[in-house]
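FW: tagging you since you asked about this chain on Friday. Here's the raw sequence from the shared folder, copied in full. Didn't touch anything.
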Amino acid sequence: MLAGCAGPKAYVRPGFLEHPPTRVAVLPFVITYPYDLKAGEAIPASHVIGRDTFRKTFYYAFAPYGYEDMKLAEVDQKLSDAFGPVDEGKWREATAQTLGRTLGVDAVIYGEISRIVHLSTPLYTETSLRGSLRMVETSSGNALWRQPVSAAERGGALMKKGQVVDFLKDQARSFHPEVKFLRVADAAARQALKGMPNPAMSAHEVTASAAASGRARLAILPFEAKRQPWQPAADALRQDMAASLQESDFDVLELQGIDAALKDHGWMPGQSVTVDAAGALGADVLLRGTVTDWGRSYAVVESWVKAELQLEVVDAASGTVLWSEKKRNTRQAGLLKGPTGYQSVVVAPLTGMSAGNLQRVETHLAREMAQDVATSAAVRTYLDSHSGSSMAATSAPASESPTAAP
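HL: got it, structure written out here
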């Protein structure tokens, strides 16, 4: 059972979106729990995994927002150069103003974990974390945004009494803290970002920031939905795809900048993107998606949550489809999972249709398809044959500012 406590609403400084920070760095997350350690004793390795997994998961989910975010490796390198090894924590003694100058950012995000648990026994398993995140303006040191978070996944014989298959899967996962903490971090990151202001970003800003890397620029176009009620799911899957592709060899353009450029060419939310509008993005590669199935199914003794997505990777210059795939992800509950009694036959199908399960199906589908995109032989061949500045030079629109060229 995945539990997440919404807790207090996020604090957002009044007028935040009138003058939002442009460039933001996500600092290394720290565990503030007061361990009772002996001399030379380190904190549990599973806790280190949980801390670092939460930071990465939050960053990937935060990256599609309308900020110019700094890569985690670059943040760590600059902190290490200025203050010594990151794990030694000397950087934590620096003020926000000093960190801003060191990193060259307008704001920094602190992540502080006050409680973290990874426990595995046949009777009870728990992987959980509780803490807070805050964005601090580096010029003044004032908080711009703050959000408490709390998420947990609990299992074992005491919790998984109704479904044999769920119990066995939980026992297997409990030996892999990286898997368990990824699931918990997903819930915590979603919880944190629910109250995060998302400023608008101009088309020029997003093109200029991506051009500096020299990598292939990927524009994830607004996803379509086969049925209009599925459009919110399409929007969520687009966001998940953007987060899941952050570690790929693409430079993923900011979604807000893409939408701004499309609107400049007459596109409105809910419409299909025309070829002319897509060509104005200054991207090398386009990713188009359509949600072809989504939702819940209930059959008294069995239920399913499902998400199905059709994706295409397109060469922006020629319009050639480089790769396409349709994939479905489902999660079932009820009879086929081995109920242990009459009560679980009735209850399990109902609880299996929870919004949390549907959200997990969406997230996992996006991760799987992002991996398929990144490792596709056709896409790899295209990237290898169009590497370097020649790619951006051939695909950038003529009207683009010289400063935006790679």
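FW: The chain is about 35% helix and 25% strand.
HL: agreed, and Residues 303 and 350 are 7 Å apart (CA to CA).
FW: great, closing this out.
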